[in-house]
## 1
Amino acid sequence: MSAASARNPSRLAAARQRAEDAKAALATGAVVLFSATGLAVAATHPGHHKASSVVREQSEEDADESGSLGGGTIAPATSAPAASTSLS
Amino acid sequence: VSSVARFRSMGCEVLVAGATPAELACVEVLFEERDRIFSRFRPESELNRVNAAGGRFVRVSAQFARAVRTSLESAAATRGVLDPTLGAAIEAAGYDADFSRLRRDDPRPAGDAAPGCWRRVRATSFGVQLPRGVRLDLNGVVKAMAVDDAAALLDGDGYVSAGGDLAARGELTVAVPGGDAVRLVAGGLATSGSGKRRWLRGDEIQHHLIDSRTGRPAASPWEQVTACGASCFAADAAAKLGYLLGRRGSEELDARGIPAQFVDPDGVVVENRCWRDAVAEPVCA
């Protein structure tokens, strides 16, 4: 057996080892990426895992008492009325 | 405010002041569109299509979804005193045609009471599902929203008014029931009551302000209530709330920071604290 042919098995083994290492790294990366994506989706779209949250019945917790029914501003009249509010 | 244009829509007279011809045309189109969508008296309206769905989920326009969402928020904010699901109740009371064509002394008794059930309405941004037999009446909400939307179309000072609901651009002096006047600085003014839209069914007086608990026209010590809200929609909701809550109305609107005045059937005017504080003339030292 020549010196060159004696070197071949070890080079093949080394190449196989590098291929195995690369596969393992790719698999780990995929798992990490998948988990990170899942966490990001859960954080940015809370509640989307519940199908019923899109169509929901109403509750008093939906109320925004300060927003929709807030008061306006009136002051003493300083001129003759230009309009009126009355029943029609 | 100079020229005032008038036209009829949504069962009442609409007044528009300070609008250019182009703005006035837009306002008329807006009211016509809302009437076409929300009228109880147009068989082809979107409202009647939803009411006839028999418990099925119905796709609706964005404008319809917005009105339903707003009315349900209003119901939640008033713990159901203002309820959009009283369409069957108001028809049972006899208000089943345009008021100008309504028979005012019908000898037939009122139909079955239909209490509100707003919590059972399912709504999304594109569809609505009502329980079987339940009918929406969005007229009050929609008229006030139309006034707000129309006033927003005006570039300069002016106002839009429809059936007691008023929104202004710029400050405006407004005559209110009881013979007084106030300066509207911000928001809207609205008057609601049973003084005008009333009729007889089987010798019993009926009107359009329904008690959501009983499904019958409300018994209130007030003939009309005027309120000033952050918008015309808020003012209209507050005026109805004040009427429907009866003697508790004044205190409730004070707690919400809403100026309001109440007129009883004898013409006696009661102002809540917010109204009194707002219109009190400053005392010189």
Note: The radius of gyration of chain B is 19 Å.
## 2
Amino acid sequence: MNGMLASPEMIDRGAAKALDKLERKLARLADLDREDRAGIAALSLRLQEVPAGRHLVREGQRPDECCLLVSGFACRHKLTGDGARQIVSFHVPGDLVDIQHLLLDAADHNVQTIAAGMVGWIPKQELVRLAWSRPAIGRALWRDTLIDASISRQWVLNVGRRDGRSRIAHMLCEFATRCEAAGLAGVDAFDMPMTQEQIGDASGLTSVHVNRMLKVLRDEGAIARAGRQVRILDWELLRSIAGFDPAYLHAAA
Amino acid sequence: MRWRNWLAQSGSARRETNARQAVLGAVARYFFHLHECGVFIPDEEGQELDDAEAARRQAVLEARHVMAAEVQTGKLCLSCRIEVVDETQRPVLAMPFKAALELSGL
């Protein structure tokens, strides 16, 4: 948000909407009562507009704020010594992308936006205090980290044991399901924000190989492609190609 | 890949790289079209690389990855190729799969 143009009231409204998104996410993870919700609404939040490719967390950094993705998309990734990148998860609006820094000091990986959007920075200590004083919020954050771990297990299985075609199909299914849970759109009604190269980095494939697999999925009628955009055309078909069972998302991610 | 190194750099190192590239000429976008057994799979996205030599190295890598996946299905066609073009669709190089491998024992 541009400080020159936005009035303090507009900024407050933006922050309230952002915290609302966090509340909705946490309410999917635990039963929140009125005081829990009031606690979330009372958090300090600093809004920031971010372009695609912006680092939200950098390996080695010691964050004192937690980053809430308000709009747009992000990926968590790690780099090898010679700079090759492995994306280990994607993030959708409502996600606290670096929740582990509530209890771990230094970042052990990077988080970067893959699309332009808005993030909200919440002081780490405020969130920790809230989690300690409101057990339901603590439970929601704990469950969120457990589901994150479940998603990581699924990604290891995906990259380690599925062939290229079902690997990409699975990644698309998960992303669409999480976007739907975040209230964005139905699984077949929006365009994927990832580039071919990012899909490759997330699935351990190279760019040409991804392009080739996307063509296979398109020829089968599972997806449509217009230029760089990917859209799911036949959800059931894509799901069966991927062997996608959303149980590991625990209906909340 | 070069841009990955760029991403991994700190802000000041990155500015240095940017300055160097401003002198040496900016990176270019190369497109890797795949010709696979009579089927043409155009690359609409491309990849940013330093120069044609980097594009050649990338083409070798891409060809090997596609072949590796083919081998896992139990078949391999060596007459497929990757054609690299620049942003104006001008051909930069062709990488026949055969040229990306050292074959022996056939």
Note: Residues 121 and 239 of chain A are 35 Å apart (CA to CA).
